[in-house]
Amino acid sequence: MPTGSGTKQGRPGQLTSSAAMLLGVAAPIAAVAGAYLANTGRLPPEAGFRLFGLSLPLAVLAILFAIVALFRARGGRNRSGGRKALTGVTFSIVTISAVVGLALPTLNYPLINDITTDTDDPPAFVAAARLEANRGEDMSYPAGFAEQQKRAYPTLASKVLSVPPEQAFERARAALESLPNTRVIDASVEEGRVEAISVSSAFHFVDDVVLRIRPTPGGSRIDIRSRSRVGKGDLGANAHRIETLLTVLH
């Protein structure tokens, strides 16, 4: 009887086809589990995102094993192995299509995670800097982000309202409170500052947000800053949040 990793009970490609099926099934499970466990708090956001990302290499490996298995089982020498390999390929293609489909719209975003409407004088985090989660973190706006932000989000700019600062402050606070999964943690009308914590819906990544209100001739100027606590990039989440706030503010 032939022996080796490619045969089992004389069936060519049996082990590789089984591996292809297992890896193919594991790929979507990893993707769903990563998102679910992070969303329910059973895993930290970073760990859940890594588990989600693991689905891609699992799917690619499944396809590679399936190719080997189908080659060894060609000519009808192992029909059951061929079916297993094709099952693995099917699950893998579905997983890759779903993950890549989600990722494609974010490929053009720069690897920056701190966005503001005023890159020359960004609003400062005060309450957020005192939080335990940010202890020891540099909360200043990174010097190298300004040019990248201007290229990626050229339309982001301060919002000017034709109302006094006290009224603009109330509108800024109401705008923050209107965002989903967002909680105001500090507000000072004297300092013209409102800060909040915003949590992403899928993986529960936490971002810090601050709105600054300053008087201008005939009204008030509002500047916004949104910063992710983890990761090098933010997939456009902070800019999208600022754009939403600018739309809500009126």
Write the layout of secondary structure elements.
Blueprint lengths: L6 E2 L2 E2 L1 H26 L5 H28 L6 H25 L10 E3 L28 H8 L6 E3 L3 H14 L3 E7 L4 E7 L6 E11 L2 E10 L8 H12 L2
Tags for this model:
elongated; two-stranded antiparallel sheet; alpha+beta; disordered N terminus; 45% helix; 2 domains; 250 residues; TATA-Binding Protein
Any idea what the CATH superfamily of the largest domain is called? Kinase associated domain 1, KA1
SSE pattern, N- to C-terminal: EEHHHEHEHEEEEH
Helix and strand composition category? alpha+beta
| CATH arch. level architecture of the largest domain | 2-Layer Sandwich
End-to-end C-alpha gap: 80 Å
- The total domain count is 2
- What is the tally of helical segments? 6
CATH topology of the largest domain: TATA-Binding Protein
In short:
The chain has 250 residues and is of the alpha+beta class. The protein has helices at 14-39, 45-72, 79-103, 145-152, 165-178, 237-248; strands at 7-8, 11-12, 114-116, 159-161, 182-188, 193-199, 206-216, 219-228.
